[in-house]
Design brief:
196 residues, Adenine-n6-DNA-methyltransferase TaqI, Chain A, domain 2, 4-stranded antiparallel sheet, two-stranded antiparallel sheet
Length: 196
């Protein structure tokens, strides 16, 4: 059995808050139109990232534009989400913590580590505040994970992604089955099969 070393999140990735968009918004809508991730997630079970257009007066540092496989954590309040970006060049607002994984590590594998129950338990222990719970970035940077070699990370990342796809397909199949049940009832009993 190979012994795995613990690596802090700070060793695995660059970690920083998104940008405060309100400092750059153009109230007159005359300047550059940019896409920005919103704090609202889609209503689908996957809770996908949504974007909206904003007009900005000044250029924003390039580090605040999404890169492929950036991991975004939303850790303020009761909503705690972990998402991985596919889109490049979207502005990341301050309500997200950006985890930009270093090249020596597989971002998909790290993403699934950050979605794990053990990580969620650790976040709960580190949460501060009474009304609105939050996690400080310095505390987040110190969380440690056992990290296997890159080949194992790649294999596990692919496996986890396939399991996610399987789960999505099964959920779609369940939705189709529910619609089919309703259609069968309506076919046999008509549209108004219930009344007062």
């Amino acid at each position: 059995m190979i012994l795995l070393d613990y690596k802090s999140l700070n060793q695995i990735a660059e970690i920083f808050n998104g940008v405060r968009i309100t400092r750059y918004v153009d109230q007159n809508n005359k300047n550059t139109n940019n896409k920005v991730f919103t704090s609202k997630l889609s209503k689908t079970p996957e809770k996908e990232l949504k974007t909206e257009n904003v007009y900005l007066t000044y250029e924003i540092d390039e580090k605040f534009y999404s890169q492929r496989n950036d991991i975004l954590l939303q850790l303020i309040g009761s909503v705690k989400t972990t998402q991985i970006t596919e889109e490049v060049g979207i502005i990341i607002p301050m309500n997200y913590i950006v985890i930009r994984v270093h090249e020596d590590y597989n971002p998909v594998f790290v993403y699934y580590l950050l979605k794990s129950m053990r990580f969620a338990d650790m976040l709960e222990k580190l949460s501060e505040g009474s009304n609105s719970r939050f996690v400080r970035i310095p505390h987040l940077k110190q969380i440690k994970f056992k990290i296997p070699d890159i080949k194992t990370q790649n294999d596990y990342g692919k496996l986890m992604k396939l399991l996610d796809e399987k789960y999505k397909l099964e959920r779609k199949q369940m939705e189709i089955n529910k619609k089919l049940q309703t259609a069968i009832i309506m076919d046999k009993l008509g549209d108004k099969y219930v009344k007062l």
